[in-house]
Specification:
Blueprint: H1 3-31, H2 33-40, E1 52-56, E2 69-74, E3 83-90, E4 105-109, E5 120-121, E6 126-127, E7 134-135, E8 141-143, E9 152-158, E10 162-174, E11 177-181, H3 195-200
Antiparallel strand pairs: 1-10, 2-3, 3-4, 4-9, 5-6, 6-7, 7-8, 9-10, 10-11
Bound molecules: FE2/S2 (inorganic) cluster.
């Protein structure tokens, strides 16, 4: 798909996303009130992503096929409602550089990019229970109103073989290639900004260093 085709597609998806975002707000709000409260809190300033350990590497490398391991974490130690869930997929690779073509892990955010409900791992990838968005095993949207792929976490293996997530990025996928962008709010496509969605879900961004270049 060319960049222009991607933009056209995401724009159409974006309009569809706006059409459903109101309904989504109602249903999703019931299901995710604690998470939404946290997400909506930092509307006037950037939030800081606090690196956090997901635990020892070894349990994550026992995965065979596609069965990502759910890894709960606390996003901000000062915010008791800031619990999050990452899905750690062991690729079978051995490279500890998260951007390398044969990186050991891909770590997905479980927050659906439609209105932020918790997506769950499935045999084909990920499924969101709120309005039916489906994502493939790369996190790319394959059905439903989600306007973009699942976000991913930057990760690294630190002292004592602990797996840490150190930043969160929104992602553009082209085949096996991933390009990374500062995190977009739920309901927002990767390119552009939809004011109606923004009114419901003001942009939440994280302070971040240089945007990583895919290799
Ligand atoms: S929050 Fe609506 S499809 Fe996931």
């Amino acid at each position: 798909m060319t960049t222009q085709e991607y933009r056209n597609t995401t724009t159409r998806r974006g309009l569809l996303g706006v059409a459903t975002v109101g309904l989504g707000a109602t249903i999703g709000g019931v299901l995710t009130t604690p998470v939404a409260a946290y997400l909506l809190a930092p509307t006037t300033q950037e939030a800081t992503f606090h690196p956090v350990s997901l635990g020892p590497v070894r349990p994550f490398t026992s995965e065979t096929g596609f069965a990502p391991t759910a890894a709960p974490y606390v996003e901000d130690p000062a915010q008791p409602l800031s619990s999050g869930l990452a899905y750690v997929h062991y690729t079978g690779g051995s490279d500890r550089d998260w951007l390398a073509p044969h990186a050991m892990f891909v770590v997905f955010s479980n927050r659906c990019t439609h209105v932020g409900c918790p997506a769950q791992a499935s045999a084909i990838g990920f499924a969101c229970p709120c309005h039916g968005s489906q994502f493939d095993q790369r996190g790319a949207r394959i059905a439903g109103p989600a306007p973009r792929p699942l976000d991913r976490f930057q990760w690294e293996i630190r002292k004592d073989d602990q797996l840490w997530i150190t930043q969160r990025w929104s992602v553009l996928l082209k085949g096996d290639r991933a390009s990374y962008y500062p995190v977009k709010a739920p309901g927002q496509p990767l390119d552009g900004q939809i004011p109606a969605a923004d009114a419901l879900y003001p942009a939440v961004t994280y302070t971040h260093g240089p945007v990583p270049k895919s290799r």
